[in-house]
Amino acid sequence: MRVKERFIESKTGNALLCEDAVFVNDYFAAVIDGATSKTKALPDGSSTGRKASELLFHAFSSIPED
Fold it and tell me: pTM of the full predicted structure?
């Protein structure tokens, strides 16, 4: 798959708090549009919305290609 453009920017300027992601492999692409977290940052500095986005990204990457 050829991707012409991919850009993500955090609302806060802190990438650890950005809830959005783009997943692309040879077979499909997914845009993950996360929800803004209403809770405080987690101990590692990321947001709960960011953690949810990371879980979805990991789930897409583990889908068998066949």
Answer: 0.76
